[in-house]
Every structure is written in structure tokens, then in C-alpha cells.
Amino acid sequence: MALTSSSTSDEWLLCKSMIMEKRLCALFISPELLCHSPSFRKLLNDRGVALLCFDEAHLYNDWYLWRPTMAMGASLVQAQRRLGLTATMRRRDQQLVIRRMSMSVPIVLRGPFLRKNLLLHVVKRPSALTFGRVSLARRVAAATEYKWRIARALRLSIKARAEQGNTIIYVPSRALSEDSRKELVLAAAQQRLGATGAALAFRAYHAGRADRAEVEDLFLTTRGVVVIATIAFGLGVDCPHVRVILHFAGARSVAEYAQQVGRAGRDGEDAYCVCFYNADDSEGTRRSIETTPLPMSTTIALMRKIYERTTPLGPTSFLHWADYHRAGIDADDTDAILAALCRTGLALAGKTQRARIAAFRGAKSTLQPWPVLSTFANALWKDHFEPGFAAMTRNLAVRRDVRDVCAVAPFLELGAGGPTAVHDALEDLAAADLVDIDYSDDYPMVQPLAVLDQQDPRDAGRLLERSMKTSAKQQIAVLDEVLDFCEADGCLHRRL
């Protein structure tokens, strides 16, 4: 079976029953789901796991600063044996990854890394438009430089198409992915590529698009496809005929760069990897990292809010975004704060959810017999919605706070996964026509936090402050390493 963040409560219950009855041979699941499902982890540990396998094992180190729940979830499940698989692992990071995966005395096997068919070319380019006020001449120069990159990317894509291959263009943002695709389509139309039999298919790819599976399928089955993507593209897409990898605006780390160019030429034929680079590419990221650490007064105020919001019946607390603002935290910094909370072991940060539930009486709310409902949907209806509808003289919305619902059984049993179960149950009620959901109101969002270490808020605040400062230093060092790599002698024309 496979369990994902979109799996229903019934699918979770079916999986649990198969584990209890020893009918499940293999389970595919993200470590973050394990991290936020304490009852499910307990079931796995009680029944016993023969083999715990970590695919793309390097991510447990590379993403430790951004998604630390990956490593936490992996360390919370016991197994007779552990196996980590990755195509890219630097020797200096090997011990860190081994520790993240809780391996004691591992056997390390390494295959050959030399890829003689990959030609790497780093092109130092003029700086693009920078922040703040700039002169007309600077804006014209930036636009000209952007058009030059588009023209160069188009020529490389034509080269890949002529060799019956595909192209991946990596960009740093969703907006640049969409804009670059439009510019490439326009440039190809101006050159009448379709009329010459060299038609190319340009597709944008990032986490905000709903057609990602369609793009992946097209990339695997068709020649002459150009995907303009953020880092979201590549993992799990094993296309042997990638002839060109283009980094449109540098790379975030040397490890990430090596991972991405490694997706080219997997059929053994020559592939061309070009990186357009300028030292200013990382300035925005650098400033963001430098301003992320919070002063001690702010971290202490945040920890006090977390402990105040913790439900008395269980370890789960829910912070409104307003709570972050009252603690002096900007909305753009919340993800970094939550990651730091996870790294220090102060809390487990879950997905953002709507704080309140608003529902109107559905078409079948007064009809019999009752539709078949999941355990959680039935509890949500019987305990929270049906009494509210019965007390109403008019068809008004029943409103409930997620924190109130999660503070009682059966939702309390899920710990930090409680809000997800509540919203899944709400969708089940809507599908059964028992309620109509009103999403028009802009409700505040909440962040579930399962507090792990009940220590003094002042001590917890100091620990959080130190962790964020250490993290910022590590991230700046990664950016500096990319700078050194791209400006080193001999980097302009080398084979990996």
C-alpha cells in the first residue's frame, strides 16, 4: 500500500487492519507522515518492521534545515535492518546521513561516480535586475541579458531535439518558470521552428501547477520536450534521453547542482550541462537567511504562546497566524521558525489548516437511512454538527473551531495529525450531502504543534535562538561554496 497526505481516514484504517493481520508486504509512506502520526508509529513498532528503506537518502541531510521532520520521522520507527539508497552523496556528509537514519554500524557500498559523457560549462553572465531603484540603462541592460539567456536556451533545446533528446531548464522561482516558458514559446514561433520540422514542446513545472503528472508523462514518452522547472522536477523522473541540463540562474548548492546534472545522459550518450551564473544570483536568498534569526525576546514569547495553546487533554497545540504576529514574527518567516522548532526537538510542526469549520445543512441531512461514513466523519456529525443544526430555527452555518474538535476523541488520538483528520471528515460529510461547505470566508490558519519537551519557555526560547543562528551560518556557508565552485579556475570547461 501507499499512504499520502491525501489518503482518506478509511484508507488509514484499512492499512492498520492489514498490518495487524500481517497481510501487508510493503508500505510506501513519507517520513513526515510517520512523524505526525504517533498512533501509527506505535502500531508499526509494536508489530515489527523487517526493513526500513530510505530512497533518495541524501535528502535527509540536504533538507534537514528546511524539512527536519523527514529525519525525525525516520528516527522514530524501529526496524531490524535499514537501507539507504542515493545516487549523490558527498563523503563529508556520509556520517551525518547515517546519524539521521539512526544507523549504528552500516555497511557502505559506493559505485563509480565518474560520468565522462557529461560536459559541464559554467557561463559567467552580467547581473540581472537588482532590488531597489535602478536607472533606465540598468533596466535595459537587464532585459537584454534576459533575452540573451532565452536565445541561448532555445539554441540548446534545438540541439537536444536534433539528437532525439529532451531539455530541463532549472529556474529559482515559480514566476520565472512561467515567464521563461512564454518567452521561449515566443522565440520559437519567431524562428518558425514548427515549419522546419524542429517543433519543441515547452512546459512549466513547479509545485503550484496541477498538471505535474501530465508533464512528467510527456517528458518520459516524447522527444523534443523542454521543461522549465523549479527544483520540484527530477526526483522520480528517470528519463534516459536528457541531452541538455540548463541552470538559468545558478544553483543553490554544489550538492544540488551535482544531483541535477546527474539526470542528464543516463543512456550513456553525451549530454551538455550549462550553468548561467552571476554572483548576485544568491543575494536575495542570502539576505533572507541573514534576517531569519529572531532575538531572544521573540523566541521566548513564541514558546509561551505554544505552551498556552497546548490542549489540556493531549500534547497538541494550534497557533493562529495572529499568534505569530503578536510574538513579533513576520508571516514570511513562519516556515523557518517551525523548522527550527523541529530541529531543536521543541515541537513537531504539521501542515497549515483552516482554523474554523463553517457548514450549512446539506440536502440529505434529514433523510434516512444514513450514508456509510468513516469513524471520524460520523463523530464530527454526531458530536458537533447535528446538535447545532437541531438547535437552529433558520438555516444558518454551524461554526466550529478545529482546536475544540481535536480536543476530544476520536480526533485527540491522532495527536498532531488531528486537524487533517477533521478536514478529511468534513470532506466526507460534504460528499455524502450532509453538509455544504462555505469557503468564502477568509478564516485564519492554524499550525498544529505537538510539544515534545515540556521545559521552561525561557530555556526553550534560548535554545530556539541558538539553533536559528547556527542554521543561518550553515546556509550561508553553502552559498559561499557555490560561489567558490563557479568562480574556480578550470570550471568553465570540465567533465564530471
From TrEMBL:
GO cellular component terms listed in the entry, alphabetical order: chromosome; cytoplasm; nucleus
Listed EC numbers: 5.6.2.4
Catalytic activity: Couples ATP hydrolysis with the unwinding of duplex DNA by translocating in the 3'-5' direction
Classification via SUPFAM superfamilies: P-loop containing nucleoside triphosphate hydrolases (SSF52540)
Stretches assigned to the Helicase C-terminal domain: 153-314
Top-level taxon of origin: Eukaryota
Alphabetized GO MF terms: 3'-5' DNA helicase activity; four-way junction helicase activity
GO biological process per UniProt: double-strand break repair via homologous recombination
Family designation: Belongs to the helicase family. RecQ subfamily.
PANTHER family, A to Z: ATP-DEPENDENT DNA HELICASE Q4, DNA HELICASE RECQ FAMILY MEMBER
Protein name: DNA 3'-5' helicase
Native organism taxonomy: Eukaryota, Rhodophyta, Bangiophyceae, Bangiales, Bangiaceae
